[in-house]
Amino acid sequence: AGGAPGDLEGVGWTPEALRVLAPGAVVVTITPFGWEGPYRDYRATDLTTFHSSGLSRLLLGSVEDPLVEPPVRAAGEQTEFIAGIAAATASMAALHRRARTGEGATIDVSAHEAMACMAARELSSPALGVVPSSRTRRGDVLGASVVLPASDGYVSISPREAHQWAAWVEVMGAPAWTADARFATNADRLQRADELIPLMSEWSRGRTRAEIYVATQEAHVPCFPVYSVAETLEDEHLIVRGSFMSLAGSDGRLTPAPPFGLPSGALREAPPAGEFSNGGAPASDGSRALGELPLAGVRVLDFSWVIAGPTTTQFLASFGAEVVKIESPSRPDPGRRTALHDVLGRSKLNLGLDLKAPGAVDAVLRLVADSDVVLENFANGVMERLGLGEAKLREVNPEIVYVSSSGVGRTGPQADAVAYGTLVQCFVAFADLNGFPDRPPSPGFAWSDPLCGMLLAFSSTAGLYARAQKTSAVRRIDHSMAEALLWTMPGSLLEAQEGMELPRQFGNRSRDLAPHDLYPAAGDDQWIAIAVTSDEEWRALCGVVDGLAGLTELNVAERYVQQDEIDGVIAEWTVTLDAREAMHALQSAGVAAGATFDTQMLFEDDHLWARGFYQPVTLPDGETQLLPGLPWKWADGTREATAATGLGSDNDEVLERIAGLGRDEIEAMRAGGAFGAEAVPRSRA
Asked: How far is it, in rounded angstroms, from Cα 587 to Cα 55?
C-alpha cells in the first residue's frame, strides 16, 4: 500500500485492517514520512523528500558558488525507486521468514528514511562529532572522480591509487608538469586540484572520448566517457549484455532490463491477478518458533569492500544472517579510514586473511561448504586467480548463491574495464541528467553504491527464497552497477527514443508543475523546496505568501508561463524565514514543502527521534554510538546491531567453529603469515 497514512486510513487500508483480512500476509506501507511520527501526514513529492533527506546537498559534490548552484534533486523521481527497493528488500526477507514460520509481517517504509540511508557515512557524522562540511569548493575537487573536457564532450577519470596515477601520467605522455614536486603525492594533488585540472585538460581537449577511454583502460586507469541518454542506447557493451529489453506493446521501444545478470528465461512476466490470492497462507507448517529473524540460520561470506557490498551484507546481517567479512590484513577495506566501517561493519564477524598465504584458500573452501551466499566485488577474474572462482566453489557447495557486483557486469566486451561507481554514473548518463542547464556534468556523490547495496540485498534474499522454495535453479547473480542505474532511468530512456527534446539537466524545476523549485531561506546556504501539485495547493500557498494573494485563480499552465515572477515572490518571503519554520508553516496549510536538511539538522530532527531512527550501538569499551538505522521499521524482523569489529578480531572463532579447523591447523596458518598483524580476538556473548 502507498500514500500518506491519512489517505490510507480514509479508505480503510490500515495495516491492522489488512492483516485481519489476510493474517498471514506481508503488509508493507510506503509513505512519505512513515506511519507514525510528527510528520506522518505531511505532504511530499520527490522534490521535497529528496531535499529533506539530506541528499540534495551531496548530489553534485562541492560547487564554486552555492547561490548559483544550490542543492538539487536527482533526475527521474528517484525517491520513488529508492522507497520501492527498500520495500521490496524487506518484503522478500519477510516472505523468507513466513515460509519457515507461517508468520506474516507488518513493515513500515518511510521514503524519507530510505533516502537518508543512501548517505550512511555522512548520516553518521554528527554522532561521531563531525561537523557537516561546506558545499563551497576549496581546491579539493579530486575526491572520487573528476570530469575532463574532450574534443567531443567529457570523460570522467579517477586515478586515486598511486599506481593508477603513475599509469595516467604515462597515458598523457609524461608532460613536464607531472614531475613538479607540488603534485608528488595524492594528498598534494587533492590540495592543488584547481591547478591540476586545467593542466590535465590541456591534454584531454585534443582527444576524443573514445581515444581517452581506450588509452586509459588499456593502462588500467579508471575512466569512462560521459554519455547522454541517447548514447547509452547505442553502446555496444550494454547491447551485448542485454541491458535493455523491449517494452511490451510499444512498437519496439526499449526499457531497462532488471540489473541482476540472470540467464535468459530466468525472469517471468508479472503473474495474472489472483495467482497469489490465498490470503498469505504459510508455505510451511510453521514448526519453527514464531518471531525468528528472517535470515536466521543463513551464513554469508563477504569478500566485498567500500560501500555497495558492505551495504548489502549490513542489511543481510540486520535480517539475522551470520555474515563473515573476509578482509586482507595488508590491504584492508578503505571504509576503515572513515565512519563507513562504523556504520556498514555492524553485526558482522571479521576474518583477516591473506588469501595468498599457505592454507588460506583451503580454509575459505571449508567455510564455503557450510555457507549459503558468497558476495564479491573484485575485478573480473580475481576470484578465479585466487582459486575461488564460481566453478571451484560449486565443487564444495553446489547450492551456494554466488553474487558478484561490478561496474559493468562480468560479461560483455568491456567486462574487464576498471570502474568505480561515480564513473559508472557518467557512463549511463545519470551524471548528465543531474544539475543545472549549461553547466558541465558532475559525478558528485557516489549514488550508485548505496543503490546497488539495497538491490543486491534484495536479489541475494530472493535467491535464497527461490532456492528454499525450489522455484528456480538460478544460483548466480551477476550484478552490474551500470544496469542498476539504468533501471531507475526508464522515463529518460523512453523520452530519448520518442523524439522528444533530449533529457538534460533541469535543476529543481518540473516540466509539468509550477511552482516547483528551491528557494533561499535565512542563513548561509539554507533552502526550502516547495512543490505545488494541484490548484488547491496553489490557493493554499497564496494564502500563506502575501505577495501571491492576487494570483489565486491561475491554473497550472498560467503558473508555468509566469514561474520566474512567481518564484521571485516566493523567494522574497522564504529568505526571511528559518527553513524548518517555513516548512512547518507551509505543511500546516497543506502545501508540500521540505527544508534542505544537512546531516546535523537530520540528527536533531524531532521526527526521526520520535521514530527511533538513530539506534544505540555499544562499543567494546562500553561507550555508545547513535548511528542511523535501517530504511524500514519492522519490530520483530531485524536484530539489534552490534558494533563493527577490528580487522581479524574473529579469526579463531570463524576458523574453529565454522570451518572446523583444529588448533594446530590455525596456528600453522598464523605462523605462515595468513593473518598478518592480527587484532586482539573479541569475545562474543
From this structure: 21
3-class secondary structure, 496 = helix
Distant-in-sequence contacts of 565-572, Cβ < 8 A, 24+ apart:
566/514, 566/515, 567/515, 567/517, 567/519, 569/545, 570/515, 570/517, 570/519, 570/530, 570/541, 570/545, 571/519, 571/520, 572/547
pLDDT at 664 over 60: yes
Whole-structure pTM over 0.85, yes or no? yes
Smallest CA-to-CA distance from 405 within 465, 331, 458 is with: 458
**Per-residue pLDDT at 274:** 52
Give 654's DSSP letter. Answer: I
End-to-end Cα, the chain, rounded Å: 39
The beta-carbon contacts of 519-522 under 8 Å, at least 24 apart in sequence, are 519/567, 519/570, 519/571, 519/574, 519/575, 520/67, 520/70, 520/571, 520/574, 520/575, 521/574, 521/575, 521/577, 521/578, 521/579, 521/582, 521/595, 522/575, 522/576, 522/577, 522/578, 522/579
pLDDT, position 140: 45
Buried b (16+ CB within 10 A) or exposed e, 198-212: ebbeeebeebebeeb
Work out the number of other CB atoms within 10 angstroms of the CB of residue 577: 19
Which residue type is seen at 468? Answer: A
In terms of Cβ atoms closer than 10 Å to its own Cβ (0-12, 13-18, 19+), residue 623 is: exposed
What is the distance between the alpha carbons of residues 219 and 222, in angstroms, rounded to a whole number?
9
Question: Secondary structure of 188-224 in the HEC alphabet?
Answer: HHHHCHHHHHHHHHHHHCCCCHHHHHHHHHHCCCCEE
Rounded to 5 degrees, φ, ψ at 531 are: -135, 115
- List the grid coordinates of 189: 594533488
Averaged pLDDT for residues 612-631: 90
- Mean pLDDT is lowest, of 20-24, 215-219, 355-359, for 20-24
Instruction: State how far the Cα of 146 lies from the Cα of 155, in Å rounded to an integer.
Output: 8
pLDDT over 90 for what percent of the chain?
A: 75
- 389 burial type by CB count under 10 A (0-12 exposed, 13-18 middle, 19+ buried): middle
Supply the pLDDT for residue 501.
60
Distance, CA of 49 to CA of 110 (rounded, Å): 10
Cell (9 digits) for 249: 506493446
∠ CA 111-112-116, nearest 5°, is 115
Tell me the percentage of the chain whose pLDDT exceeds 70. Answer: 93
DSSP characters for 80-106? Answer: HHHHHHHHHHHHHHHHHHHHHH---EE
Distance (Å, rounded) from C-alpha 359 to C-alpha 356?
Answer: 9
| pLDDT confidence tier of residue 98, bands split at 50, 70 and 90 | very high
**596 near 526, Cβ under 8 Å?**
yes
Q: Is 371 helix (H, G, I), strand (E, B) or coil?
A: coil
State the pLDDT at residue 509: 95
CB neighbours of residue 360 within 10 Å: 22
Hey, what's the torsion of the CAs at 540, 541, 542, 546, to 10 degrees? 130
Question: Other C-beta atoms within 10 Å of 491: how many?
Answer: 14
pLDDT, tens digit, 9 for 90 and up, residues 331-369? 999 989 888 899 999 999 999 999 999 999 999 999 999
What phi, psi does 390 have (nearest 5°)? -55, -45
Query: Could you count the other beta carbons within 10 Å of the beta carbon of residue 64?
Result: 11
pLDDT value for 263: 77
| CA–CA dist 630, 628 (Å, integer) | 7
Lowest mean pLDDT, pick from 242-251, 516-525, 631-640: 242-251
